[in-house]
Amino acid sequence: MDLELRYKNVLITGGSKGIGLACARAFLAEGARVAIVSRTQAHLDDARRALGEVFVMAVDLCDASAATLMVERVEAEFGAIDILVNSAGAAQMSAVDDLSPSAWHAAMAAKYFTAIHVIDPMIKRMGERGTGAIINIIGTGGKFPTPSHLPGGAANAALMLVTAGLANTYAAKGVSVVGLSPGATNTERVALGVKAQAQRLGLSEEQALGSMKRDLPLGRFAEPEEIADLVVFAASERGRYLTGANIVVNGAATPSVV
Q1: Is residue 104 domain-resident?
Q2: Which residues form the domain of 179?
């Protein structure tokens, strides 16, 4: 299937590792041009060595002004962005008894506002041009709360609402907005989840890992490449009618019809 992505300009936040890095590979394989941003220059350097010819820029997306300047610079130096993939940001996991108001604020800053700070300037530019696609990689915690991830889940839920609302608002302007929420995926993030689960249940990390896998219908975590394949399709013209959808991708771990 030709997804018609050749020569499209793609900006991926959090593109230096994990799902973001897998998305970069998938778009490059489709013939797209890719720019990736991350907070850490060393991670970007590693990603560029692994990927080849990509545009990279280090930026802290928690800073709204820095995010706006990043969008301006990327479009000036790399070209007008056709597709934005938000894969940056992750809220810290912790036991409920360890939470404080500052933890809830930190989760919103780390997950919700890192996306909003890029979406806001980017979707306005896309709307003016009459074309564009935004894919938000969110997380199942926004739909299925877990005790070790409540602040992050709240941030995810807020981003799901924004995805649906902006999709409805910008559809007539030619911009699609889709949310994909992966379940447990084989990235560094899983290790943090295993540690939090072990602490909550009083298990060793090895025991917690085994328990998590046994609870999954497929008996394994998703691979980043499996999520990236869906991102690429959703961002293409073939996936245009998905706009406004918030899709859970967790291998039937939480069966639901809602």
Answers
A1: yes
A2: 9-185+223-248
